Amino acid sequence: MSEPVNIKLNTEIATPQATQQTEGAIIEESTYRYDALQNVDVNRLSSTRRPTLVTLFGISECGKTTFVGSLFAILCRRPQLLKSTFIDSDTLTGFQRRVHTRFLSEKGLSEPPRTQRRAGSILNIVLGDEHGDNQRMMVFSDLSGEIYNDAASKDEVVLQQTAVKYADKLVIFVDTEKLLPAKNNAYKASFQSLLTRFKENSMFSQNTEYFLVFNKADLVKEKTNKAVEGITDDVEIEKIRDEVTNLWKQRKLSISNIVSPIVAVPSNNIYEICSKGIEYENEDTKLIELFNRLITEKTPASLSPEYNWIQKLVKIK
Amino acid sequence: MENYIKCIAVGLQDTGKTSYITAFWAIERNGNTGHLLTFDKYPSDTSYLDSMATLWFDQTAVQRSQINITDLTFDLIHMESGCKFQMAIPDFKGERFKLILQNKTVEEVDNWLKQADCLLFFLSPNPEKKFNEEYGEISQEKEDYKPLVEFTVDAIDEWIQNIELLKYIHETRGDLKIAFCVSKWDTMMSKNTDIENWIRYEHLFFYTFVKHHFSNVKYFGVSAQGLDYAHRGEMTEEKVSELTDQKKRAFVSNGKNRDYDITLPLSWLLEE
Fold first, then answer.
1. Residue A217: CA atoms inside 13 Å, Cβ hemisphere, count?
2. Any idea what DSSP says for residue A22?
3. B241 near B154, Cβ under 8 Å?
4. Cβ B186 vs Cβ B226: under 8 Å
5. In a mutagenesis test of the B interface, which of A92, A97, A118 is the best target, namely the one with the most B β-carbons within 10 Å?
6. Partner residues linked to B217 by β-bridges
7. Which H/E stretch holds residue B76?
8. A19-20 and A26-27 as β-strands: parallel, antiparallel, unpaired?
9. Distance of alpha carbon B74 from alpha carbon B5, whole angstroms
10. Is B246 on the interface with A (CB under 8 A)?
11. Mind telling me how many Å the CA of B221 is from chain A's nearest CA?
12. b or e along A177-198 (b: 16 or more beta carbons within 10 Å of the residue's beta carbon)?
């Protein structure tokens, strides 16, 4: 057995309390052990080594839950793709909730938005390298898209999202399904409002590493294939392909124009992925690359044991 | 020399806890088996075990525990060392363990856990639930699967539930010695694969969690019934009856070979 895991729930630090959340609703404590945590519960996590907080940011239906479900599936069954070993998690039920939501979506079903709003959003996982050494904790904030929908129009909701303010890595999701059609104006306006509101409330930090992710990017290929269906002339096919490619470039540029004045996203942090791309031996390579970058510690240097990052996350608002 | 060992049989519903304890009693109660452990004396009240054993002899599925049996104590003797052991082995319903995952306090289980020296942890050989995307195509089986909209404990994959139980046990008692028994191993023998390797390849997430939290574990394949009653094949009632008499029906396996000494997981737990 390798060295004991020195990362655990420290139940002496704080007692979970009901949390005031959006729309005046009181968050109820989960009836399940190892469920996702609320922000206040995060104080109960303790670690002698600084965890890395990865915040998934985006309005509903942009694929955050599918993304987390895929990450969990890869960590469970093919961690070698991420050069990692699963060691522990205090939120296995929280991960399974997301897996459940994804199973529902396969059947065209979904949980009521009210339930989604009430669920905890903080997930954690302890990973080691391929041999189980060099253990570190990753903390994921996977807030319901419904809350981001609310945040796009309410400062009060924005200010509650401390996991955005203190994120080490923040992944901004763009829904290709909504961006690709001609009538994408409402989507872009809502996307811009969301980012602007967080910016105006000083919730984006310069210490955060930003990623811009165009999710469901397989739809671009699908659109191309549909456009060339029944056409046999190679020149015509090539012309249509170019048209779709250019259209997609313009769409991406319109998003970049919204994002770049607000946060700085390095060009190598922009990804086009399909978060469902986890077929055995035919995985979406960009998705796997992104997973790898997200689960890599941002600050490998250990901090003093007195430094409680998570308490800081919640207390300093 | 006599030792008092407290062992607790842990496992979700339908993982074979009661079947194993029943087969153990049915096979070992009269001795002369040549197995590593045998009874030194009978438990004071065997009415529960006897009723279960009758079902086992009759080649009928042993009903899983309808009640929580907390006072099962086996006085055993190790045939090689001559050491005598008193082993307390309560048979809790699988539902009791599921309640733990629902954030309930299950006092009788907690009390046993606090005193336990070792665990017999039962696992079912069922596969993990996977996403359609992992297969690359939608299978008919997946298409027929209709999940409940509401999230319940049953929506949690069984292997994740097992990890959660182990995590709870680790938080309660730390690093205990555990014999993992994968039940219904008769249905797995055709795979001819080492059981630890099978766990590592098919249930890697579970395997690595165990590896990093428990230092003294061993995996056993267990077939307490000796066959799948619903798919008998060549195992006619007559044939099974003969095997029962010869004490060659239930078996323990390392994944490749059959060993008819069903006491092996317990005797391993009793080793220093």
1. 22
2. G
3. no
4. yes
5. A92
6. B178
7. strand B73-78
8. antiparallel
9. 10
10. no
11. 22
12. ebbbeeebeebbebbbebbebb
ipTM value: 0.88
Residue of B nearest to A74 (CA): B134
Work out whether strand A169-175 and strand B84-88 pair parallel, antiparallel, or are unpaired. Answer: unpaired
Q: How far is A32 from chain B (nearest CA, A)?
A: 4
Q: CA B235 to CA B229: how far, in whole Å?
A: 9
> Which residues does B129 contact at the CB level (< 8 Å), separation at least 6?
A99, A103, B157
| Chain B CB contacts of A30 below 8 Å | 103
Residue A49, amino acid: R
Longest Cα–Cα distance in chain B: 61
Q: Could you give the number of structural domains in chain A?
A: 1
CATH number, domain with residue A265: 3.40.50.300
Q: Concatenate the DSSP letters of all residues of B90-151 into one string.
A: -B--HHHHHHHHTT---HHHHHHHHH-SEEEEEE--PPPP--HHHHTS--HHHHH----SS-
Q: Which domain does A162 fall in, by range? A: 7-218+256-300
Instruction: Report if residue A244 sits inside a domain.
Output: no
> Which residue reads 């809790």 in tokens?
B92
Task: Look at residue A122 and give its three-state secondary structure.
Answer: strand
Judge whether A172 and A57 are in contact, CB under 8 Å.
Answer: yes
Which alpha helices (DSSP H) does B9-106 contain, by range? 17-28, 47-57, 94-101
| Alpha-carbon span B183 to B75, nearest angstrom | 24
Tens digit of each residue's pLDDT, chain A (317 residues) = 443 334 444 333 333 334 444 444 444 557 899 999 987 777 677 666 678 899 999 998 899 989 999 999 999 999 999 999 999 999 999 999 998 888 887 777 777 665 555 678 999 999 999 999 988 889 999 999 999 999 999 999 999 998 999 899 999 999 999 999 999 999 999 999 999 999 999 999 998 999 999 999 999 999 999 988 888 899 999 999 999 999 999 999 999 999 999 999 999 999 999 999 999 889 999 999 999 999 987 764 554 555 566 666 665 43
The structure's pTM equals 0.88
Contact B167 A103 (CB under 8 A): no
Pairing of strands A270-272, A209-215: parallel
Tokens of residue B187, six digits = 């249905």
For domain B2-270, the CATH superfamily is P-loop containing nucleotide triphosphate hydrolases (3.40.50.300)
Q: Give the pair of three-digit tokens for residue A81.
A: 């793709």
Strand partners, A126: A88, A137
Indicate the pairing of strand B73-78 with strand B37-41. Answer: antiparallel
In this complex, the residue of A9, A111, A280 whose CB is nearest that of residue B134 is: A280
Alpha carbon distance B203, B201 (integer Å): 6
Residue A97 and residue B101: Cβ atoms within 8 Å?
Answer: no
Cβ A104–B149 below 8 Å, yes or no?
yes
Alpha-carbon distance of B16 to B22, in angstroms, equals 10
Q: Where are the alpha helices (DSSP H) in chain A?
A: 64-77, 92-106, 113-118, 145-151, 155-159, 162-165, 176-179, 185-200, 218-227, 234-259, 285-294, 309-315
Residues B184, B188, B193, B196: what is their CA dihedral angle, to the nearest 10 degrees?
A: -30
